[in-house]
Amino acid sequence: MTAINEFVKKFYVLSYYMYLILFIFGKFMLLNFYKKALKVKQSTLNYRTLSTSSSPLLCFSSNDYLGLSNHPQIKKHWTEAINLYQSGATGSRLLSGNHDFINAFETQIALDKHQEAALIFNTGFQANLTILATLLNKQVLEQEPMVFADRLNHASMHAGCQLANVRQQRYQHLDLNHLETLLQKSHQSPHPKFILTESIFGMDGDQADLEGLAALAEKYDAFLYVDEAHATGVAGTSGYGLTPDVKGRIHGVMGTFSKALGLAGAYFGSDQVIIDYLINYAPGFIYSTAQPFPLLYTASKTWEMVPHLEKQREHLQYLSHLLQEKLRYLGIKTATSTSHIFGFVLESSGKTLEVAAILKAQGITVSAIRPPTVPMGTSRLRIALRANHTENDIHQLIEILSKCAHFFEQ
What is the CATH number of domain 58-66+309-408? Predict the structure, then answer.
């Protein structure tokens, strides 16, 4: 009996070590797949790391377009909100995470965006991802939807289509003739049609022709979905983006509080039935804890400020014209910017990183944009202006860029 017990004990010990060896080997093999993927990024100069800087830098890489992230009035609202409300939402909007002031905020957003209703989401990426995946649901639509998307739309829009498992027909960037050609081919099709675009494109700073897109949507009975992330706060008659100026002709519009408003979060405006449908079917909304009440309260107060920030928008526009003029004098071509965002197309990630490093060495930060953020085979140096930049800041930027002009020669 003792011999048997000893054998069983040794068997279990051996089994344990065999299991441990197999576990370690399996983990090693698994990690190798991820290491291999990272090596691909490194070999193509598209590897990224998180970094901070202890020295003060002149920043042209921020999306804080109106300079509100450090605005004293907004900080005051945040402090006020902490005293008024609990710090966390404690649950999803459908459970414990809702409040009357949030409902009122959504009503105001809908009014200012010329939509029937609006719904707040935690981030812009989450909003596009879950909204599009839910709207394009084949089972709900009872057939496969046809999606016509600008080829330079934000990654979150592409991801939403992928999650819905629908094929996108991508039209050439801003090319309404190409879009209409695609729409014409499917004119007799009974499948629901969707047109997806940004209003101001985040990489190159150019603008979609929303009037033209609305006309095509009406002509071909398509749902027009517009991403206003980079336009909210800085564009349009009231500052609420470009879509309000196309009154009643945009079927769905997404925007964020995380760029010009200097905070975090996103909104979506559409018909009431669409908003009710999202509340009941959008997983990203249903299963997400709502944002902290102080954040949403501050966002609501910042939203109220937008129409009164005309001076900041005028200054931002002036700086944009000034930079455009200086670049033209240097012979440096941007993409097709008509806004506060400038994209410089460079032939390789290596050159982009080199120019960004030269600027950083001189105390200036810009964004080095590489695939997959932009299409494979392209690379961009992205410069974003803010309303709290000065003329002197622009001159300083131009001085350093002038020494890098040879990198931009095509």
Answer: 3.90.1150.10
What CATH number does the domain located at 73-307 have? 3.40.640.10
Displacement of CA 104 from its chain's centroid (Å):
25
- Is the four-CA dihedral 164, 170, 175, 176 of positive or negative sign? negative
Beta-sheet strands, E only, within 243-286: 252-256, 266-270
How much is the pTM? 0.89
Q: Do domains 58-66+309-408 and 73-307 have the same CATH topology?
A: no
Q: Which two tokens stand for residue 333?
A: 């071509």
Could you tell me the residue ranges of all domains in the chain?
58-66+309-408, 73-307
- How far from chain centre, in Å, is Cα 385? 17
- The contacts of residue 35 (CB under 8 Å, 6+ apart) are none
DSSP letter for 187, please: T
What distance in Å separates the CA atoms of residue 66 and residue 210, rounded to the nearest whole number?
23
pLDDT tens across the length of the chain (410 residues): 566 666 556 656 666 666 667 667 666 677 778 788 888 888 877 788 887 765 568 999 999 999 999 999 999 999 999 999 999 999 999 999 999 999 999 999 999 999 999 999 999 999 999 999 999 999 999 999 999 999 999 999 999 999 999 999 999 999 999 999 999 998 888 999 999 999 999 988 999 999 999 999 999 999 999 999 999 999 999 999 999 999 889 999 999 999 999 999 999 999 999 999 999 999 999 999 999 999 999 999 999 999 999 999 999 999 999 999 998 888 877 767 889 999 888 777 888 888 888 889 889 999 888 777 676 667 788 999 999 999 999 999 999 888 877 766 55
Structure tokens at 395: 């001159």
| Three-point CA angle 233, 106, 212, nearest 5° | 55
Q: Which two tokens stand for residue 76?
A: 């005051």
